Amino acid sequence: MIALSIAGFDPSGGAGILADVKTFQALGVYPTAVITALTAQNVKHVGGVEPVDTDFVAKQIDLVMAEEDIQYAKTGMLYSGEMVEMVARKVNEYQLKLVVDPVLVAGSGGTLSRDDLARSIKKHLLPLAKLTTPNIHEAEVLTGLEIKNEEDAANVACELGKLCPTVVTGGHLNGRDIFYENSSNGNDINFIEGEIIKTSNTHGSGCTYSSAITAYMAMGISMVESLKKASHFTKKAIENGGHGTLNQMWRQNQL
Ligand code: PLP
């Protein structure tokens, strides 16, 4: 099994492409990784962002795809609308089954995106995606709607669900993830139980969650089952973390 992450680099290791690679590896999926931007940051703040040239990111994707039979991919930090449009072209070209984590800001609050990013993700990437995994803040920015409670979150999931299946992650609300899929036999909403975990080790939890979903889907597991398993995996990664970062290697220690 093999999967691709197209995302930014967080040198602290808790989030971004390192979190994605650790997650794929811990779940037994061979990781490939294309870097869209370097960041200078730790868990407390983002000190700078250096986007990689879009043509060079395209070249990374082309050369990885030329050698490996990759069907499942996820996106994390894409930074600009231009990057989103290029990635959308590649997803089409290689018929990738895509999970989109619409990363806009770091957990510390530092921005990881240009102003045109949310609009571009909605227009170009979500219509191609198998799933998107916004947290509450990202879901609000993507739809322009405010989320104060679980009902609001469900409405926003329905709104984004017009573009692709959507799970609004509940870590910032009450721990429950809300999944919406506009299925052919009616409109399905599934509430997936999550647990509130009282810790500060959540830097990179969105990256870990979306990578774990991608890994489970690459193994042939259904989407709803993948969501449940990924939620459990992320909870364990948070519980085993330290210093504000996650520890995705807990599974290996148990093997
Ligand atoms: N991608 C990169 C490169 C990051 O640095 C971060 C956060 O710092 C994220 C994504 C988003 O992280 P989270 O999973 O906490 O939303």
From TrEMBL:
Transmembrane stretches, start-end: none
UniProt keyword annotations, A-Z: Kinase, Transferase
GO molecular function, one term: hydroxymethylpyrimidine kinase activity
Domain Pyridoxamine kinase/Phosphomethylpyrimidine kinase, first and last residues per copy: 10-241
Keyword Mitochondrion part of the UniProt annotation: no
Xref: InterPro entries: HMP/HMP-P_kinase_dom (IPR004399), PM/HMP-P_kinase-1 (IPR013749), Ribokinase-like (IPR029056)
GO BP: thiamine biosynthetic process
GO cellular component terms, A-Z: cytosol
Record flagged with keyword Transferase: yes
Pfam families assigned to the protein according to its UniProt record, in alphabetical order: Phos_pyr_kin (PF08543)
Stored NCBIfam families: HMP-P_kinase (TIGR00097)
Full protein name: Phosphomethylpyrimidine kinase
